[in-house]
Structure formats: C-alpha cells, structure tokens
Amino acid sequence: MQRLNRGMMERYExxxxxxxxxxxVQFGMGERLLGVVDRLIDASAAGIGxxxxxxxxxxxxxxxxPAALLREQDGMFTVFERGxxxxxxxxxxxxxxxxxxxxETDEExxxxxxxxxxxxxxxxxxxxxxxxxxxxxxLAARMEAGLGGLDVICLGDxxxxxxxxxxxxxxxxxxxxxxxxxxxxxACAFLPALAEGFAFRAEAREAAKLCTDMNYAxxxxxxxxxxxxxxxxxxxxxxxxxxxDDVPGVTxxxxxxxxxxxxxxxxxxxxxxLAAPGWLLGCDTLAECMKRETLxxxxxxxxxxxxxxxxxxxxxxxxxYVIEVFERLENPLNxxxxxxxxxxxxxxxxxxxxxxxxxxxxxxxxxxxxLSFALAATIMLYAGARPGESGRWEVARGKELQPxxxxxxxLSVFATLAHDMPPESLAYAALADRxxxxxxxxxxxxxxxxxxxxxxxxxxxxxxxPEE
Length: 468
Fold this sequence. Notes:
Strand content: 15-25%
C-alpha cells in the first residue's frame, strides 16, 4: 500500500492547498497542536506554512518519532472528523497539508532559526519541557543573528500562560545572556490562546482499518470531533498579519480570560464529573458513559445544580455552552477513551471545579454533593496507578491496563496510596497533601467526611452512584 505523499494527491483526488513557503514554526507535535490547531490553520486562506520542531522521541511502542513519520509523508496527515454538527452527522476526512518542514536535530533547528521569513510561532505552554527548550534556543539564535522576533501563540488554560512562557524562556537558554529577557519583551509578542476540541492519534487497529478504506498508508492518522476552536487574544496588527479568522472556529478577542474560564468551569467540570465515575462503573468511552441514564443524569445535575449556580455570568449565557458540552461528550461517532480524553484530570479539577467547591461550601456549609463524589472517585482511580514497564503510568481495572496521563509528581504521590486503604485514611492522605492541590482540602467544610463516606461506598460496591 502506497504511503501518503504529495506525488499521489492528484491520483487520489485529494485537493491541494499547499502553502508557498514556511513562515511559522511549531514547537511540539502533541495531539492538540496537530489535530486541532494545525487542522484549523490548514483550512485558512492565510497561506501559513509550518515548520514542526520535535524533540525526536519515539512514540510509545513504536521505533519512530512523530516527526520521522511525517517526514516520510511530506508533512501530511489525515484527520477524520466524526460526530454531529447542527443535528447532522459529520463523517469526513481532511488531509492536512500546512506542514512543510520537520526539524529534530540541533542543526536543523539552528538552520530554521536563520530563516528570515519566520514570523509566527505556535507552542503549547503546558507541553513537554524539551519543546520549550527548543523554542528558547531558536528565539535566542534569532536575537544573536539580528533577525526579527516572532508572534508567539501560546496555548493554555489560563490568561497568564503566555506571560509565564515568556518569563520561563531565558532560564531555558542561559547562553543567550542578560539581554535575552528584554529582547523577548520588545521584539516578540506573546499571545495567550485557547484550543478546544478532542483529537487523538488513531490506535493501531483503527488506523489499519482506515488505511484499508483509504487505500493508502498514513502513520499519523488523527480522529477528531467536529468541534475545533482556537481563541486568540490579539490586537488589530496581529489580525492583519495573520488573518486566520476566515475559518469558522478561529476567533480573535481582546480578552481570552472569559473563554478560558467558561472552558475550565463547564467542559473540565463536566469531564471531571464523568471520567472517574464512568471508569469505575466499567465504561470505556465517553459515549458509553453518556448512554447510561444514571451516569448521564448525575453529570447533568453536577452541571446544572452545582456548576451553573456559581457562575457570575447570566445563566442564559452559559446554558448554550453546557448543552454543547453534553453533545460533545455523547458523540456516538467518535470513540474517545475515557482516560485518554480526561488527561491531566487533577489539573482540570484544580483549575475548574475546585474553586467552585470552595465557594459552594462557604455559602452552604457543606461541599457540593456530585462534585465531591467525583473527587472521591478520582482518588480511588488514581490511588491504583503505578508506573508500567514502558515508563508510562498505568491503572488497572480487573486484568485491563490503561495509561493514565497526568503530572508525574502528582502520580508519584498517589503511588504511595492504594484504593483498598481504610476510607478515612485514604481520604485524609489524599485531601491533606498540599503538593497535590496547593492547599489542605480538609479545610473545606464537610469535604473529608463526604469523601471518606463515598470511598467506603465504592469499596463495598464499585458501581455505586449517589442517589438523587
């Protein structure tokens, strides 16, 4: 079977829209960058050609890095959109063509840094440290060569993500000298941005089936929901230089904070309420969770009875977004594995539901019922995590093992715990650990007792859910 490449496009009737030159650099090749951001850029008429910089680490279970796989495919890869939009099914394939160059070695990175036509950078502010180091090295090289700075779109969930990235870069390139921080502030624009949408690299079995259907080989197939949004905090000058908002889903705003707060509160909140309870109940995918009426009702009450009432915005403004969240979670055409979709669940909890639980407890002298149970279920899930042979953290359900992606430091804390500990001991150990939450959560009125009771109920019956 022929591998995807530019020479076969006409024969396979793949419409070509290849940019003329590289004018953007992307640090990292995570699923959010490739499957959401690059897919949106590819649909734009702005003519943005991307050079992808990768640390060159091989993918788990494979002998090649994402950059090596894309290099074999002339930078192209296929995204399958599956789901519903405006109540109509969406099932289409997109061949992303905006990646024109790959860089893995220091020599390739330095050559890219010398390109005078570079003007835009894309980076996940919470991505791998190796990618941040490569960004620091490239920007430092441009400063030393007297070349212009870059507009840096920094993906994150908090408005200060771009500032934190800018402030962190000098320490990652100490050889750049004392002038580097000032150059970053003066020559570069760091723009906070929010990317929304599920996108995952297809697992081997699914990828093999899709390649057979397409009649060409693609080692970097991504599966994605129709929802793909990029919200960038940017002024008029940036908008003129990079007119990406010709694409539905790309929005330029004066302040990205409201969009980020909405995402943390409702999307992360709903995912937090669903993920650990669904996994413990025996579900494998988000869609399977939402097909269970009791679990779907549980998540619905968590959103409408506990998350929405604490929203300072009008209920009517937030409700349409909550409805969209439900449509995304129950998407029947996209098999989103629970633990893959809910990666970094502890971080999502700390930024989204946790502040609301504090406010709720202060006003009601008790924690919100469903979010408290979701926290207890998350503690039960994480307390069973252990490092696997591949180096990835894993969690077991019966004889089944699945990877659990979260901050290694937090997972190391949970590795000292076990889900069959006495309920009071497990609740105490998890809630009191300031390294996990930045505070002692036992100080939230009634939370420790509530979590301990829920853990006890789950230990007696793994399929336990609080009754309405």
